[in-house]
Please model this.
Amino acid sequence: MSTQIPVLLDATSLPPSWGGVARYIEGLLTGLGELGVSLDVVVKPGDLERLRTAAPGHSYHAGPALLAKRPVRLLWEQLGLPRLAARLGVSAIHSPHYTFPLASRRARVVTLHDATFFTDPGVHSRLKRTFFTSWTREAGRRADALVAPSRATARAVRDAVAVRPDIRVAYLGVDPAVFRPPLPAAVETFAAAHGLGTGTGDDTGSGSDGWIAFLGTIEPRKNVPALLAAYALLRTERSARGLATPALVLSGSRGWDEEAARLLDTPRDGVTEAGYLPLDELGAFLGGATVVAYPSLGEGFGLPVLEAMASGGTVLTTDRLSIPEVGGDAVAYTEPDARSIAEALGRLLDEPERRADLSGAALRRAREFTWAACARVHLDAYADAGVVTGVAA
Model:
């Protein structure tokens, strides 16, 4: 039997793709359930059954149908959300994605996922940068408790804005039922569905086998143009040595990276844009890849890195901002320029034993990141906001 705590979690910001913040909200609710804790959750009507099925045991409430429209959701957040909190009699509102009620008699807990709006503003659109920096500043002034997904993000927020409460660092978790080493049959099925081979990419000849995976929204900070340039260099250099190169497969929706879009709109040898893959294919995509390449310029946490590690992937990434907190010594690192990425990819393709060592280390490290551990930190944040949980976290 769970302990109901007086917190209302505003889950109306779940994106249609069910990625990013949705993984965080679903994971947090699952982790709280594992700790025997339940709370009130408000959600858009279209997301109600899916979230209730994914994380049962909480008290779910459907918001108005018009919340699917973002301007309406933001207005309702200011007017309707405090009224719902008053009706439910909760002590605090947890706003898990930057924005929160500016006027509320309830304590406010706010999650700030990313500080690259301050540390690397050029990788964001002006509108997005202005929106999120403004809300981060307001959260620093008004929130009763703050949560960030990494020490790097918490430190960058403190450096950029005046923060009244302490910032609790709650590392994200990973769902082992989805992200785990795939069975060979699952890899073969995925490869066949997408026209890919299942080998290691170390064979010689004119054809390629296996794939190099990229997972993430194609936005400037993901550094996709450098990855594409690196891949072209890699193919040329390996071809000169009589070696095949695995295909480069990019999964994720297109964001606002105009340079990447222009490059991807031109056919490129060996490059496939798979678009948004369903969740149940991601384990095979990441775990079945020869290498997972994620040359990001900076992350608030770096969930794709963790998900690839949990799937047994060999990960090549950068040491920017939070990523080393996730990858530790279980991933390979590169500088974010095309030449460095190409050289690092080439070394990994040439060293199957190193890939196997990294894969094993990644699996072991990924087990340290659980949603229950994430939930325990959130209970501390709720206590910071004056919520009496009655739970030994």
User: Anything to note?
Assistant: The two ends are 16 Å apart (CA to CA). The longest strand covers residues 3-10.
